Amino acid sequence: PATCTFKGGLESEKQQYIIHGGKTPNNELSDKIYVMSVVCKNNKKVTFRCTEKDLVGDVPEARYGHSIDVVYSRGKSMGVVFGGRSYIPSAQRITEKWNSVADCLPHVFLVDFEFGCSTSYILPELQDGLSFHVSIARNDTIYILGGHSLANNVRPANLYRVRVDLPLGSPAVNCTVLPRGISVSSAILTQTNNDEFVIVGGYQLENQKRMVCNIISFEDNKIEIREM
């Protein structure tokens, strides 16, 4: 599934965890979204509470290999779902291709965790469905790097910046294509400090693993990617 951390607001210290989609043990795909939180810590034992969140509106279809992040704007927060793969439509599923998958449409979904509303956005800069990309959320912005396009079997050197503005009215979502992206899929991302992340592993070609790591650093809302 796709996972991320979530605070009720920029001032909140209580942290929750969002879990969306993924494969079930019987090889079906899930469209469910769960909110997990720590209930108590007692004698070194941590107790969690996991609650399923019902969504209305443009509900993201069941998928895996996607990302979910949380953006914060004007004191409000919103979940952002992008990418992934899903089974081909039921009408096209025959015995030989029952488990065949396809890229999800390159729509961006905004999810309001408080009211359980979901809205999809079509951004002209996002033309192809992507899976197993890397996503980084910073304040009101998400950066999408790399990914694998199943339709074309390529790992383009993508770098997109998706900015979400949350005024009193309808949200505003815009996307910018940035230069100097990297070709990577299925990599691990970890944060080393407030303004620095590290990408480890993954694939650059179908049968070629990446043998370099990358440092991603931010300064004055500018992103820099370099090898380490």
UniProtKB/TrEMBL annotation:
<dbReference type="InterPro" id="IPR004321">
    <property type="entry name" value="RAG2"/>
</dbReference>
<dbReference type="GO" id="GO:0097519">
    <property type="term" value="C:DNA recombinase complex"/>
</dbReference>
<dbReference type="InterPro" id="IPR015915">
    <property type="entry name" value="Kelch-typ_b-propeller"/>
</dbReference>
<dbReference type="GO" id="GO:0006325">
    <property type="term" value="P:chromatin organization"/>
</dbReference>
<keyword id="KW-0862">Zinc</keyword>
<dbReference type="GO" id="GO:0043565">
    <property type="term" value="F:sequence-specific DNA binding"/>
</dbReference>
<dbReference type="GO" id="GO:0008270">
    <property type="term" value="F:zinc ion binding"/>
</dbReference>
<dbReference type="Pfam" id="PF03089">
    <property type="entry name" value="RAG2"/>
</dbReference>
<protein>
    <submittedName>
        <fullName>Recombination activating protein 2</fullName>
    </submittedName>
</protein>
<keyword id="KW-0479">Metal-binding</keyword>
<dbReference type="InterPro" id="IPR011043">
    <property type="entry name" value="Gal_Oxase/kelch_b-propeller"/>
</dbReference>
<keyword id="KW-0863">Zinc-finger</keyword>
<dbReference type="GO" id="GO:0005634">
    <property type="term" value="C:nucleus"/>
</dbReference>
<keyword id="KW-0156">Chromatin regulator</keyword>
<dbReference type="GO" id="GO:0033151">
    <property type="term" value="P:V(D)J recombination"/>
</dbReference>
